[in-house]
Design brief:
Oligomer: single chain
Helix content: 25-40%
Strand content: 15-25%
Number of strands: 2
Distance between the termini: 34 Å
Radius of gyration: 19 Å
Largest sheet: 2 strands, antiparallel
Number of helices: 5
Order of helices and strands: HEEHHHH
Strand order of the largest sheet: 1-2
Structural class: alpha+beta
Length: 128
């Protein structure tokens, strides 16, 4: 099986054994789910560890918070830079300002040591 391009990119950043990656294949017959197959793509992930729920939850969060990604929204953007700007703002909020249990993803990764406020975001810049 060919290695997906995203995995080649991740392999350059991390060691290969550190990236267990799998795929869920749902087989349907007459609009009914008849089988679910868990397939290891990279490494040796446990079947119960292969899940789409985290990605689906993140996609839902993006759609709920960025109105221009909803169907028939009044905040429709005609130009790509407007979408990019909205996604950048969402990424900041999600990684630097939305504290869950007292920490943000940026704090857990050691990028920052505190929850950022909007004023800091507008005044300062960070290079990753």
């Amino acid at each position: 099986m060919a290695i997906p391009s995203i995995m080649r990119g991740l392999a350059k950043l991390y060691c290969e054994p550190c990236i267990p990656y799998g795929q869920i294949i749902k087989q349907r017959k007459e609009n009914r789910l008849v089988a679910v197959i868990w397939e290891a793509i990279w490494g040796e992930p446990a079947d119960e560890a292969i899940s789409t729920s985290v990605v689906e939850e993140y996609n839902t969060k993006i759609r709920q918070r960025i109105s221009r990604l909803e169907r028939n929204a009044q905040a429709f953007s005609r130009k790509i830079p407007a979408y990019v700007g909205a996604l950048n703002m969402f990424q900041f909020m999600n990684n630097f300002s939305d504290a869950k249990k007292g920490t943000t993803p940026a704090m857990r990764e050691g990028i920052t040591d505190h929850v950022w406020a909007w004023g800091e975001f507008l005044r300062d810049s960070i290079q990753l």
